[in-house]
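Give me the fold.
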Amino acid sequence: GPLGSDGGRFKGDLPEERHMKVDNKNFYFDIGQNNRGVYMRISEVKNNFRTSITIPEKCWIRFRDIFNDYCEKMKKSSDSI
């Protein structure tokens, strides 16, 4: 049927949680789903403090492009030293 006719529910298995540790910080990437669709929650955990942001799936590619653009700019600036 038309897109969203099933309430916009994602069919299939959501990707599993990922985790990375940098110095004394832990970053968690969790994929979840609510009535507005699929989202990624990125949490930073340091000691007993946790902060997180939630990124709707519909803007992951845009988010990735912005992030990648910063990576490229930083790479260029370090290459030119």
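The chain is about 25% helix and 40% strand.
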